[in-house]
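W.,

You were right to be curious about this one. When I first looked at the sequence I had no strong expectations either way, so I just let the prediction run and decided to look at it fresh. Below is the sequence, 256 residues in total, followed by the output.
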Amino acid sequence: MGNVLLLDAGNTNTKICLADENGLGESYSLPTRPANTADDWGLKIEAILQREGVEPRSVEACVISSVVPPLDPLISRMARRFLECEAVFVGRDLLLDLDNEYARPEKVGADILVGCLSARLTYDHDNLIVIDFGTATTLACVKGNAFKGGLICPGVLSSRTALASGTAKLPNVDLTIDGDSLSWGTTTEECLNQGLVFGFASMIDGLVDKLSLRMRDPFVVATGGLARTIAQVSERIDELRPELVMEGLWMAYYNQ
């Protein structure tokens, strides 16, 4: 098998990664702008492939997990014109070996299901909670080979932006803290950083505790841009997997 281009299209950013039968290559992140054209996406993809030393026409498939419907036709046209291959969308063209017990299965984000599949194939624990710190913070619950449902909470960056844009004096902060012990801030920036990082970690720990009443001894996996920041002070996150969705796309494609 040749190279495969993997895309995880989220509401804020789109992660892009080349892969082959041996695994994942380097990942890149571009802002998701559905208003851009297929050519714009194609030229950016060409630049990534050139940097990786890969000929565009050696890419055999473009595999996408997308939660941004307006972007889908652009990626499809880009794949045909620039890569001379077809775009393969999770859920429509590529089915996942995971039972979906959601009340309306078609409403589940492809990224959530791909992350759950990746965790299911990686860990032996019967009960899993997959947390994605993205535009929203999501907790997906897996029991056996079934996605049972989950929780959707505000995102860390979304909350930070809402505070900065909705108030006169609160700034946008960098979400960094000096240690893993909570301390009151002595500047506005410290107050925000401590409140957001420890606040979200406490929210996650509390929600995992409550979900544990329904799923015994869950193994908690975290992914997403702010996962490392929150995990450093969380008591319930067991492992970080920054490339969890990409790993799931790779597994789903090469195991089909």
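Here's what jumped out at me. Helices lie at 38-52, 72-83, 110-122, 156-166, 188-211, 227-231, 244-254. And, maybe more interesting for your project: The chain has a mean pLDDT of 94.

Coffee later to discuss?

I.
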